[in-house]
Amino acid sequence: MSGSDSFRVPASTSNLGAGFDALSLALQRYLKISLQAGDKSEIAARGVSAELIPTTPDNLIVRVAASVAKQRDRELPAFRMTIDNEIPLARGMGSSAAAIIAGITCYELLTEDKLSEQEIFRYAFEFEPHPDNLAAALRGGLVAAAVAADGDVLIAKLTVPEGIRPIVVIPAFELSTEKARAVLPQSYSRKDAVYNIQRSALTIAALTTGDWAMLREAMRDRIHQPYRAPLIPGLEEILDLETPGLIAVALSGAGPTVLALAKPADAENVGRAIAGVFERHGVKASSHLVNIDNEGRVIV
Question: Does domain 4-159 match CATH 3.40.50.2300?
Answer without folding.
Answer: no
